[in-house]
Write a structure and sequence with these properties.
This protein has eight helices and 20 strands. The protein has a six-stranded mixed β-sheet with strand order 6-7-8-3-9-10, with helices on both faces. Strands 13-12-11-14-20 form a five-stranded antiparallel β-sheet. It is elongated, with a radius of gyration of 25 Å.
Length: about 375
């Protein structure tokens, strides 16, 4: 059983602390995705697992063994980088076989491993080609195949799709998902800044920000129950709308009044100390609907319309002029710029955050 455990792991460069107190338990067979904005430390954390960066504090365990000081080659890890890093003068076969040759494997063992990996990645017909004769997606598959033949304990992927165009990203993302399904016992850790990749590939997602883990959980858990406003706005596209509001009634359910003149009864419990406090009311663009009722969340004016066919995206300014928000409506809507509208949402789709940005559900 291959598991990873990070216990109070941190990383500093001199006096600059880039990762602090990282605690993660990764089980065999999981595909864990590290996601976050540029500079949050996700690639550094991956490189620490690989042994390419020294761990400043804490412990990293693989299968229960502390590997802080174990060389990269002895950790049983294979890494796929953002750049394909293929040898241009070698065929696909030789690129995939190279590490096995260095390890002293027999010709028969090498041939069996390379052809099995090529079959799994649909590369058999390209084994005699040079990398320059392949597309970007095919080159990335060769880089993945080079890792598979080593039969590692853990696969590490460092933004492997970032060099591909939009269409190839989608196709290769599907191939990675299919690869994971064909290797159910393999443990994979994947770094990306693309939350779509994170949501579609991950067993669980680690959201990093400023060197800290903001939340660690299943994709839909992060989408439906974000721990704070950062996760709420990072996961989901377009980002969650946050409306300034005040708690008017606390209890088993919480009544809030928005600064834009709206009101909502949110099925989230609050304490007596929350009464009259300033909060943020969160609602995702896809959960907003237009209403003619006097009971609404926000009254706004349409500033721009994106008619996409399957959806209509409205960019809005609240009537108090202080809040910008987005509504994503299904289908086609004949709404023009400058139109005043009222918006509401199902109470179960609403989120509450305190004045420190923490979700009421995670306090």
């Amino acid at each position: 059983m291959t598991s990873l455990s990070l216990k109070n792991v941190s990383k500093s460069y001199g006096t600059v602390e880039v990762l602090r107190n990282i605690d993660l338990e990764i089980q065999q067979g999981e595909l864990i995705v590290f996601v976050g904005p540029s500079g949050c430390g996700k690639s550094t954390l991956l490189r620490m697992i690989a042994g390419l960066e020294r761990i400043t504090g804490g412990e990293l365990e693989i299968d229960g063994m502390v590997v802080n000081n174990v060389p990269p080659a002895q950790r049983g890890i294979a890494m796929v980088f953002q750049s394909y890093a293929l040898y241009p003068h070698m065929t696909v076969y030789d690129n995939m076989a190279f590490a096995l040759k260095l390890a002293g494997k027999s010709r028969a063992e090498i041939d069996t491993a390379v052809r099995a990996a090529a079959d799994r990645l649909q590369l058999t017909e390209y084994l005699d080609r040079l990398p320059k004769a392949l597309s970007g997606g095919q080159r990335q598959r060769v880089a993945i195949g080079r890792s598979i033949v080593r039969d590692p304990k853990v696969f590490l992927f460092d933004e492997p799709l970032s060099n591909l165009d939009a269409a190839l990203r989608v196709a290769t993302r599907i191939e990675i998902a299919q690869l994971k399904e064909s290797m159910p016992d393999s443990t994979m850790v994947y770094v990306t800044h693309d939350q779509v990749e994170a949501m579609t590939l991950a067993t669980r997602i680690v959201v990093l920000h400023g060197g800290n883990v903001e939340q660690f959980g299943a994709p839909l858990e992060l989408y439906e129950r974000p721990a704070n406003t950062f996760v709420a706005q990072f996961i989901g596209s377009p980002a969650m709308n946050l409306l300034e509001a005040t708690v008017t009634t606390a209890g088993e359910t919480t009544t809030v009044c928005t600064t834009d003149g709206g009101e909502a009864v949110v099925p989230i419990a609050s304490g007596a100390s929350d009464a009259d406090s300033n909060v943020k009311l969160g609602v995702r663009p896809e959960d907003l609907t237009i209403t003619e009722s006097d009971r609404f969340l926000v009254a706004a004016t349409v500033e721009m319309v994106e008619a996409l066919g399957e959806t209509t995206v409205l960019y809005l300014k609240a009537q108090n002029g202080a809040t910008s928000l987005i509504a994503k409506l299904p289908g086609i809507h004949a709404i023009s710029r400058g139109t005043p509208i009222r918006l509401t949402a199902t109470p179960e789709k609403l989120h509450l955050f305190d004045n420190e940005g923490r979700s009421f559900l995670h306090r």
